[in-house]
Amino acid sequence: MEDSEQVLRAIRRTAEDLPIDLILHTPGGLVLAAEQIVQALIRHKAKVTAFVPHHATSGGTLLALAAGEIVMDQNAVLGPVDPHVGKYPAFSVPHVLDRKTIDEIDDETLILADIASKAVAQVRDTVRDILEGNGVEKAQALRLVEALASGRWTHDYPISLEEVQKLGLPAHGGMPDEVYALVDLHP
User: Fold this and answer.
1) What is the CATH classification number for the domain harbouring 49?
2) Sign of dihedral through CA atoms 131, 135, 138, 144?
3) How many domains does the chain have?
4) Beta strands 77-78 and 55-56, pairing class
5) Which residues pair with 49 in a beta bridge?
6) Which value, to the nearest 10 degrees, does the dihedral of the CA atoms of residues 31, 182, 70, 131 take?
7) How large is the angle between the packed helices 2-13 and 31-43, nearest 10 degrees?
8) Contact at 8 Å (CB) between 144 and 168?
9) Does the structure show a pLDDT above 70 at 2?
């Protein structure tokens, strides 16, 4: 949350006609923090470019989706947007309800399945809202939601630049040397 507060302050202090270049090097984190940054980026009137020199997964992918342009190293990856409930992937928990009878499931698992279902719905809505807020047509946004936030991939599935491009996201290679130099200064 402290990092997100610093990023939000930086966005707020940036003149609305000044483009924002955002270097993403993150495994993600709290959805709440990512969503706050995403909303600030979408509201920013000037161009937002996300640079991904290595990886931007989970919440990092949400941030990349908020950019009008994604620049990735040829070996960089994005990742699925899949919430977790406790130590479990939220997409997996409700499947217990399909595989066992109600009397075979403990109360904690039932509560976890309920929370997981809500988390999945929230993240799917968030991805759709980000994409539509960034001008992606509704049908394309729904296809991207299905690809990125459907639970078809594990949390550590690497989505390469080529795959990101096949999905139709505004991504390309050509990482500036200055980005590598900056990342090298902050290992």
Assistant:
1) 3.90.226.10
2) negative
3) 1
4) parallel
5) 21, 69
6) 20
7) 0
8) yes
9) no
Which tokens is 89 given?
A: 């992937």
Spell 46-80 as b/e; 16+ CB within 10 A means b.
Answer: eebebbbbebbbbbbbbbbbbbbbbbbbeebbbbb
Model confidence over 65-100: pLDDT tens digits? 999 999 999 999 999 998 889 889 999 999 999 999
- The structure's pTM equals 0.90
Here the tokens at position 1 are 């949350």
Q: How many residues in the chain? A: 187
Structural domain range at position 60: 2-185
pLDDT (tens digit per residue) in 93-133: 999 999 999 999 999 999 999 999 999 999 999 999 999 98
